Amino acid sequence: MFGTSPVEVMAMNAMIQGWVYCYGFTYSALMFGANALGASGTQTVATQITSDSDFVIQRINLVSFTALDTPEVNPDFTMQLTIAGTAINLMDAPQHVNNICGNFFDNRVPNDLPFPILIAANQNLTVQTINRSAVAQNFTQYSYVGFKVKYLTMTVFDVDGRPTGRVPTTREAVFHVL
Questions:
Q1: What are 79-83's contacts with CB under 8 Å, separation 24+?
Q2: Bigger pLDDT: 83 or 108?
Q3: Could you report the per-residue pLDDT of 112-145, keeping only the tens digit for each?
Q4: How many domains does one find in the chain?
C-alpha cells in the first residue's frame, strides 16, 4: 500500500538512510456501548497518537452495525476530522463517509487517501460523526490504516569518514515540517 506521495517518499528515503524506522499500524475510533452512534445522533471520538512515533494515515475504513447487529452497508453518516492538538481541520465542512472512507461491504473496495496525512506524536485525531438516518448504530468503527514513523539516532561522520557523534533524527529533518 506504500504510495508515491511526497510524505511516503520522504519516509522511504529517511528509512533507507537509517534515520527512521517505519512499520504498518492501525489506529481506531470506536463508537460502541454508551458511546454508540444513536439514530439521528452525533458522536465525537478522539484517538490519541502515542508518544513513541508520528503516524501517517494512508486509508480510512469504516464499518458499522445497526442496533439489530446487521451491517450498515451504505451508512448515511457525515464525518469531520480534526487534529486536535493543532486545531487543524482536515475538511472545510463535514463530508459524507462514502466520499472519504472505504469498506468491504457491497463490493466497494477501500480507497487510499489522495494525500496521506502526517500526524505528530502525542496529537489527538478527532472524528465527529453525524448519523443522518433514523437507524441507531450498535457498533461503528473507523480504522486509520497507515504506518508509524519512529525517529532513530544518527551517527555523524567527519570528512574522513570517522564517527564524531550521534544526533537524534527529527520530524523537521525528515518531513521539513514542525
A1: 79/127, 79/128, 79/129, 79/130, 79/142, 80/127, 80/128, 81/125, 81/126, 81/127, 82/125, 82/126, 82/127, 82/128, 83/119, 83/123, 83/124, 83/125, 83/126
A2: 83
A3: 888 999 999 999 999 999 999 999 999 999 999 9
A4: 1
Residue 157: the pLDDT is: 85
Please give the pLDDT value at position 40: 96
Q: Print the domain residue range for 86.
A: 26-145
Please name which of 158, 131, 146, 11 lies closest in space to residue 77, comparing C-alpha atoms: 131
Do 153 and 147 touch, CB atoms closer than 8 A?
no
Q: Is residue 60 part of a domain?
A: yes
Domain CATH number, residue 102: 2.60.120
CA dihedral over 50, 80, 142, 10, signed as positive or negative: negative
Kindly state whether residue 7 falls inside one of the protein's structural domains.
no
Mean pLDDT taken over the chain: 90
